[in-house]
Amino acid sequence: MNSKLRHISFRALGTSEIHLRFLENDPELQEVLGVRARDAAELLRHAPLGARRLVGPAELGKAFEAYAERHGASAAAIENARAIQRGEAQVVVTGQQPGLFGGPLYSVHKAATAVRLARELSAVPGAPRVIPVFWNHSDDHDLDETNRAFFVNPNQDLQRFRVDVPHAGEALRDVKIGRALERLLPAIDDLLPRTEFREDALSIFTPRHPDEAFGDGMARLLFALFADDGLLVIEPRDLPRSAFDVLPRWRSQHNAIRGRMRNLSDHLSDLGFEPTLDPGTPLMFHLAEGQPRAPLADDEPFEDAAQLSPGVLLRPLWQDAVLPSIGFVVGPGELAYLAVVGGLYKLLGVPRPVFVPRVSLTLMEPSMHKHLDRFGWDIPDLAEGPEVLARKLGSEEPTAAEVALDALLRDVDTRFGEAEADVRESDAAMVGPVDRARAKVQDEIDRLLNKVRNSRQNRQGTGLRQVRRLCANLRPRGRTQERVLNVLPFLVTHGRALGAQIVAAADPFAVQHGVLEL
Questions:
Q1: pLDDT one-digit tens code per residue, 186-207
Q2: Residues 431, 324 share a domain
Q3: Residues facing 309 on adjacent strands
Q4: Domain check: are 352 and 323 in the same one?
Q5: Helix H or strand E segment including 145
């Protein structure tokens, strides 16, 4: 399937300042975020190749293989898990908490970037085998962020859907959504196109049992989209027991960790950045099945290391202490907090991978491109919203019929005014009926004028409906598409080959936003 790719500057589209400056190789950020590699060879020169990790390759590979088999992964994924088990591979890691129907598109873009980066690293002469990994973070407990999916309805409005499930603060892994998801799927049925890929796409998200959790559908999606490249997926609770042994030791270092955090936050402030993480945020949570994920005070006792769940400060370090990661694909928001926690890698003795910004993409159907070209707009322009944009289009040249009807409106007003003056002199009681007749005639002409104008605008593709369609699909809520819409409608339209198209566009060393015409 052919596709076209072009690029838009992040300064035109909008992103965080720290993301911009990292992409532009700001030397002040290298101290906290390390080098931004420009190509695969440069990344390998700075990567912690062969560094020792907490979990041995045999244990880790078996965990990956068991998870892949449980979710019906491809033969390529199983072979990659066995390569890790044999100690033959390094990994590029990315991750996100699971979301309804895969969550926002940027989760797929993260996985695609990791796949593409692993591919390019493995192709460097003399490089090790590199495997892409997605950390499916079902330890998270933020249900509001996970439990939402937006679709564009026939009125070209965004419509939000969610599963109706009870929640008392448990980790996402413990939130059972199988039956609720079965009830939700018919509700989105009319919002999806009828294609040859529809049944297969929906089957990915169809729950296999009532106790299914958010992470299950996320895993099936990623295994399906990136089957040929053997992307591996793992959830924290599926790691070997030895992965948790380090957590009590880190917790005992809370004073050193928080002191280093304060110093790094002050340093970032001096560089002109607003730190996004509070150094006082919980380092660890207590996680027991069926119970709320509860924050632990630094000196609060606990019973079992396997029930510890690192908070946002330590989660990336735990991931890189466990996995043989040489590259870490991250989003703009993650760059902001890694700038604060990046200094903890050395403090805790964790090999720090090279941070690689994920690709940022807008997926565009050809009809959308035609409308943008006709209007002379690009994606950044859509941030103004459909109403503002539609008013701008109102200045276009009217048709002859519109001009004639507009003149008729003015003529009717003049003629009725003359008639009213004559009637007032002869029979003042008739003024009211004349006024009512004038209003009725004017209303009918005005209604006809609006119909003619709307017909012209719709024929030319300049009506409010077309503008709303562009904004809802390409700049929903004034934000980038990847932060709002999910992958399901695109998967229904293009099938599993969509994964390969996104990987082809997911240049891990790109410094601009990509627009992928499918």
A1: 999 999 999 999 999 999 999 9
A2: no
A3: 285
A4: yes
A5: helix 143-146
- Do 45 and 125 fall within a single domain? yes
**401 and 488 within one domain:** no
Residue 260 lies in a domain: no
For the chain, counts of helices (H) and of strands (E): 23, 13
Q: Are 456 and 403 in contact (CB under 8 A)?
A: no
| Confidence (pTM) | 0.88
Domain boundary among 457, 473, 489: 473
Distance, CA of 371 to CA of 463 (rounded, Å): 11
What radius of gyration, in Å, describes the C-alpha atoms of the chain? 29
What's the pLDDT score for residue 375?
A: 87
Instruction: Provide the domain limits for residue 415.
Output: 367-473
Residue 266 included in any domain:
no
Contact 74, 223 (CB under 8 A): yes
User: Which residues contact residue 34 at a Cβ distance below 8 angstroms, ignoring those fewer than 6 apart?
Assistant: 46, 342, 352, 354, 355
The amino acid at residue 40 is A
Specify the residue for token string 């024929």.
Answer: 459
End-to-end CA distance of the chain: 8
Confirm whether 282 is domain-assigned: no
Classified as helix, coil or strand, 94 is strand
Distance CA 61, CA 247 (A): 21
On whether both 34 and 175 belong to a single domain, the answer is yes
- The DSSP string of 238-292 is GS-GGGGTTHHHHHHTHHHHHHHHHHHHHHHHHTT----S-TTS-SEEE--TTSB
**Do 461 and 486 lie in a common domain?**
no
Beta bridge partners of 71: none
Q: What is the pLDDT of residues 56-90, one digit of tens each?
A: 999 999 999 999 999 999 999 999 999 999 999 99
Residue type at position 43: L
Beta bridge partner(s), residue 135: 95, 234
Low-confidence ranges of the chain (pLDDT < 50): none
Nearest CA-CA partner of 488 in 104, 95, 73: 104
Return d(Cα 151, Cα 360) in angstroms, integer.
Answer: 20
408-418 pLDDT, tens per residue? 988 888 888 88
**Residue 286 in domain:** no
Residue 6 forms beta bridges with which residues?
515
As a three-state string, the secondary structure of 478-503 is HCCHHHCECCHHHHHHHCCHHHHHHH
The reply to whether 356 and 393 lie within a common domain is: no
**CATH number of the domain where residue 194 is located:** 3.40.50
What is the residue whose two structure tokens read 């369609």?
469
CA distance 462 to 465: 8
Number of domains the chain is built from: 2
CA–CA gap between residue 140 and residue 410 (Å, rounded): 65
- 200 and 330, same structural domain? yes
